[in-house]
Amino acid sequence: MANIIVLEKGRDILNEILEISKGVPHSVCSAKRSSDLVEDGQEAKTDLLVYYKNDGVPVDQLFNRIREFRSPPKVLVVVDKPDFSELEFSLREGALDYIPRNEATGFLTSLLGRLDQLVVKDEPIGAELGERFNIVGECTLMRNCLNTVAKARHSDVSVLIQGETGTGKELIARAIHGISTRSSKSLIVVDCASLPDTLVESILFGYSKGAFTGADMQNEGLVMRAHGGTLFLDEVSELPLELQKKFLRVLQERRFRPVGAKREVESDFRLVAATNKDLSQMVKDGLFRSDLLYRIQSLKVNLPPLRSRLEDLPLLIKHLLKKSCKKNRISEKSFSDCFLETMKCHDWPGNVRELENVLDSVVVLAHFSPVVYPEHIPHYIRVRVAKHSLHNNDMQSSGDLKRITGGLVTRSSLPTYKKYRNEVLESMEQHYFKEVYELSGGNLAEAMKITNLSRARLYEFYKRYNLTKSEAH
After folding, report:
1. Sheet with strand 299-302: strands edge to edge
2. Is the per-residue pLDDT at 309 higher than 70?
3. Bridge partners of 38?
4. Using alpha carbons only, what angle is made at residue 266 by residues 264 and 271, rounded to the nearest 5 degrees?
5. Which of 41, 78, 306, 312 could form a disulfide with 351 if both were Cys (CB 3.0 to 4.6 A apart)?
6. pLDDT value of residue 256
7. Does the pLDDT of residue 31 top 70, yes or no?
8. CA pair distance 80, 78, nearest whole angstrom
9. Could you tell me which residue, 13 or 383, shows the higher pLDDT?
10. Residue limits of the Sigma-54 factor interaction domain (predicted)?
């Protein structure tokens, strides 16, 4: 039996579901107001929420409320007039579907007939993955990711992980491998962005003795090392086009010829790929093969940026503070409400990786304090938070500003001019090179023209600020 809640103005969809489910032991109830949903969801597990958008509640507000459910339900959105942006948003948030009212009867008839099967076996281990693989997150977006990962455990389909830099793509890849039937074999990680153009083929596919100058002995290559296990191509968007063509055949046949070899060899591997780029757009721009994209995205995992899951920030801070204290051999620390409030005001362009680096700094600065406060946060963040707050006029008083920024302007916490200047310049520098990277599309040659810097110097900045290097072409 499944528990169903219908949110609508009136009883249109409710009566239809009651009629369709006659003889089926589902529990069906209605909610007139979206504010009732959280209470219903917390009293008992709701398996399916059918939202008929005739009560005026925007779809984004609905999903915000659903995030407060201890165990989020499946969601079906029914509308009189479909809107593409709402459809895209709903599906991205994990909705079962977004359908027009005139298709609801047929869809509900099919859905209710298989609802028990859909809700019973869908998420048996998704919640366990976080603890096992140190993936912290309880928001709906992260639950959806982990549930997708859980579904991949019994198959060998290729998985594409998409997400901004620092969102934890490699953690997800390790989880996919760790719960698969191949977990007893190796996970081979390949950073495609760091592969030299002249050596990429020999590194991936290996080479025979004497294949080229310096090839004094045979090398099996990374694809062969992944035999029986998982091959993880990180930043797969950086693979050269010519190699994409060769790798497509490897995916299709699981056979390839090492450089200089006379015979082909076989490697039975499962592919997991990751990217922070829009591969569909790269296909349109002629930078990525469409046939390869179809092959690598049999299953997609979309990792949300940290700014889209700030409800997870307290859990992440607690976890990473503990990790940093242990790493630095410092007693464990807690954090104040003001500290959390300040951290929530930052937009975290570097995502969880940036958060981890910031908390490493916080732990060192608050060495003798058992509790961390806003004054322990690096000044570039506090300055940015203060600037944003003042710009948006959302501070009620200077006292509010000092509370949020840890009293940046007080004598005790004001840094030296040199320290303040360095931190502000570093922040501006990071922003500058991020703009350069995006404007040049990751092309080093183009970025060198913009910045008038040498390749080595430019790459040094890219590496410092965790920007993916793309070889000039």
Report:
1. 187-191, 230-234, 270-275, 159-162, 299-302
2. yes
3. none
4. 125
5. 306
6. 92
7. yes
8. 7
9. 13
10. 135-364
Q: How far apart are CA 271 and CA 188, in angstroms?
A: 10
DSSP state of 240: -
Question: Given phi > 0 = left and psi -120 to 50 = alpha, else beta, which region is 286?
Answer: left
Q: Which token pair is 159?
A: 């998985």
Say if pTM beats, i.e. exceeds, 0.90: no
Cα dihedral 89, 91, 95, 98 in deg (nearest 10): 90
CB 343 within 8 A of CB 156: no
Dist. CA 327–CA 325, nearest whole Å: 5
Q: At what angle do helices 337-344 and 379-391 cross, to 10 degrees?
A: 70
Instruction: Give the up-direction half-sphere exposure of residue 405: CA atoms within 13 A in the CB hemisphere.
Output: 25
Residue 426, Cβ density class (10 Å: 0-12 exposed, 13-18 middle, ≥19 buried): middle
What's the confidence (pLDDT) of residue 122? 46
Question: Would you state the pLDDT for residue 58?
Answer: 82
Q: What is the identity of the amino acid at 230?
A: T
Helix residue spans in 21-93 (DSSP H): 37-43, 59-66, 84-92
